[in-house]
Amino acid sequence: MTEAATVPVPAMVSVRGLTRTYGTGPSTVHALRDVSFDVAPGEMVAVVGRSGSGKTTLLNMVGGLDRPDAGTVLVDGTEVTALDDEGLSRLRRESVAYVFQTFGLIPVLTAAENVGVPLRLRQTPVTEREQRVELLLDLVGLREHADQLPGELSGGQQQRVAIARALAGSPRLLVADEPTGQLDAETGLSVMALLRALVESEGVTAVVSTHDPVMMALADRVLHIADGQVQA
């Protein structure tokens, strides 16, 4: 019997020759130097390195928040580096979501309203929006806090709301820059475990920068970056 040929699955993220330099002359900073790698669909990749190594710059390029001097980034087959501002806005609205150290919640909106913001921008019908918000608050363990304002929540709870909001629009790619950087060790551990679980349950691909060895252990793969280069 002839075995069926294995069809390779296209990468969710494909980075080739990414280069980014800031400043000129003696003050030049080579944030990224000819960086290339792939991330498979459904994979959770941790990007690790010292402060100033280029982690945040790399994540900003992958998520379309900044443009490289050279090289390309493809996300789900779309060349991010070739998109105009309108195309980048659409990418961020429909395919890529972000979680940052600072939670970025709107202080005058409740937890549920914050989670629902991306769905409002997409003009999701009210009933569908409310069901999705309720589901996500359940997933992050905050259903009982739906009507509380961010200022009434702990740091860990606020980050959980931010994660739920990032997943509201069912993105294909989640970009998280030091998501536990402002949390204590115990809270950070619970948030990291939550991210791992949500990557699996929501079928999302994740690229996460971190200093935390626990997050590295939870990731499918670790990319080490130093002086703007990915190390073997």
Automatic annotation (TrEMBL):
InterPro entries listed in its UniProt record: AAA+_ATPase, ABC_transporter-like_ATP-bd, ABC_transporter-like_CS, ABC_transpr_LolD-like, MacB-like_ATP-bd, P-loop_NTPase
Native species: Angustibacter luteus
Domain named ABC transporter: residues: 13-232
Name of this protein: ABC transporter ATP-binding protein
Molecular function in Gene Ontology: ATP binding
Coiled coil: none
Keywords: ATP-binding, Nucleotide-binding, Transport
PROSITE patterns, per the entry: ABC_TRANSPORTER_1, ABC_TRANSPORTER_2
CDD domains tied to this protein: ABC_MJ0796_LolCDE_FtsE
One Pfam family here: ABC_tran
